[in-house]
Amino acid sequence: MRSDRIKKFYARQAPLYDLTRRLFLFSRKTAVDALELNDGDRVLDIGCGTGLNFPFILQKAEAENIVGIDFSKEMLERAKRKYQVRLVEGDAADYQFGEPFDKIICSYAISLMDDWEKVIENASRSLRSGGTFVILDFSRWTRAKAAYSVCKWWLHRHGVDPERNVGPVLGRYFTDVDTRVLHSGYNSVVVAKGARK
User: Which CATH number is 39's domain given?
Assistant: First the structure.
């Protein structure tokens, strides 16, 4: 099963993740800024991994108001050593969080997930009225197409689909969806508001 293979991959990668992923999984501050965090906001980080978004979120949100979910126990163990936030080992496609969130972020995880459309649906249900959902992920390059072919091959080899078009899926669950393409299409930030309840 694909998800089992990805779990094993991240179990091996967890010790190296923070050192290596900063080199090519960037724009996290841009994505967190797009959340437009306010005092008292309750924040969910879907696919939080080792917590690379947390330093930016913690600049504007209290640790007790932050929840991270990931399906990799090994990645969460790394996050637990660094941050005093609530961490959940689980599947974001169907996990029931209870109290809703004001803001939800998902960075470089939708492109890995088997049930990514269900993750988006569950996120929309987990948001308060007026909340914001931000997705940061890979995109289709608009330049250097030969290099992109190599990059796409490498990403596919590691279980990543860099061309998932999240906009139309978000449009099923949100009234306002804005896509901001960054770095000539290397990645994009998609901001969804107005969850349809």
Answer: 3.40.50.150
